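Here is the promised in-class demo. Please do not try to memorize the tokens; focus on the logic of going from shape to residues.
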């Protein structure tokens, strides 16, 4: 088993088992842009009960939106928001002033360009990066190409493993920082920040079971049990709130061995605090299970789009909220409308020029 695959069965597996996110809830967003410049936007949700659900998606709050509840089945409801815009500028400004850090940042821009025979419509909407995994930059683990591929739905095993490695490194960073902070309070001559930094990667490999390329990797529960005084026992290492008392002791024992200092045993409060921070991160922004079905209908003929699904003049995207963890998710589409009146005017002008030319030639011959 390669180093890249180690993250499935170790720290990530344990934490995911503690904080299961449940099923996905789909948010449908449909934007219609007409040739006369007027627009309409519809947001549809399907909450389990008749109340506005808490959502990271910025739901409408102003009176300009029409809100409609319809019942779907005995205990299900459909919530629909609709707003009509008089022009493209109004639509582009709709999300311009929202700065709620607890919501997904949306940037929406629609531009109309007149080029005589054609009018072009350029639509760009992006959902901003939405994640509490901010301690380790994604580029520390993934390349720009891999970040782009994951964001737009690549589900290959190797890439998904690297993304999970980045998640685990963020969780580990939360734990490690609390250890360093606690060690500074001990004023121990050995456990200096530089000393701990020198053993940081070693401790990560110990916690994740990474013994090098091709090694067989194990989950952290088994690893802590077997590398501590709880080897061969049925001690419960993890509970609903993270490390149990036995798990805390086992973790401290493994950390003390890695950092070559029994003083680590005095950092149980820091260890518990670090695990708490890691667990909060795991159930934080971008992990709640939402998904999005986004579509835009443009006038005329679609010329270019990054949408995976195109039906006539409709471009559609579907993605889960986890796709926002590494970078912004951008949706682009460009369409073209033939200006028939411009063709007619051009024809009249050409015809007029031909008539003038013909009259000029006739007058010339008479002379």
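The designed amino acids, position by position:
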């Amino acid at each position: 088993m390669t180093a890249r695959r180690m993250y499935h069965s170790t720290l990530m597996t344990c934490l995911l088992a503690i904080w299961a996110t449940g099923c996905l809830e789909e948010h449908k967003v449909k934007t219609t842009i007409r040739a006369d410049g007027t627009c309409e936007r519809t947001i549809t949700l399907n909450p389990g009960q008749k109340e506005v659900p808490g959502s990271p998606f910025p739901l409408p709050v102003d009176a300009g939106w029409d809100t409609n509840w319809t019942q779907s089945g005995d205990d299900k409801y459909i919530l629909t928001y609709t707003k009509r815009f008089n022009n493209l500028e109004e639509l582009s400004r709709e999300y311009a002033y929202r700065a709620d850090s607890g919501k997904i940042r949306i940037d929406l821009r629609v531009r109309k360009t007149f080029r005589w025979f054609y009018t072009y419509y350029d639509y760009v909407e992006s959902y901003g990066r939405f994640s509490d995994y901010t301690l380790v930059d994604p580029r520390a683990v993934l390349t720009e190409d891999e970040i782009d591929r994951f964001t737009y739905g690549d589900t290959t095993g190797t890439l998904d493993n690297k993304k999970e490695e980045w998640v685990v490194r963020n969780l580990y960073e939360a734990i490690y920082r609390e250890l360093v902070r606690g060690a500074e309070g001990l004023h121990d001559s050995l456990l200096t920040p530089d000393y701990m930094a020198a053993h940081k990667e070693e401790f990560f490999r110990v916690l994740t079971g990474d013994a090098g390329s091709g090694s067989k990797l194990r989950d952290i529960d088994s690893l802590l049990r077997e590398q501590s005084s709880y080897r061969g026992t049925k001690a419960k290492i993890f509970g609903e709130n993270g490390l149990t008392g036995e798990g805390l002791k086992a973790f401290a024992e493994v950390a003390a061995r890695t950092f070559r200092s029994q003083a680590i045993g005095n950092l149980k409060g820091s260890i518990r605090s670090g695990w708490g921070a890691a667990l909060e991160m795991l159930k934080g922004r971008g992990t709640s299970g939402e998904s999005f079905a986004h579509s835009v209908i443009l006038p005329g003929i679609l010329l270019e789009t990054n949408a995976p699904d195109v039906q006539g003049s409709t471009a559609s995207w579907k993605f889960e909220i986890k796709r926002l963890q590494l970078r912004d998710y951008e949706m682009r589409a460009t369409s073209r409308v033939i200006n028939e009146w411009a063709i007619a005017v051009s024809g009249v002008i050409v015809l007029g020029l031909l008539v003038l030319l013909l009259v000029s030639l006739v007058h010339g011959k008479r002379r």
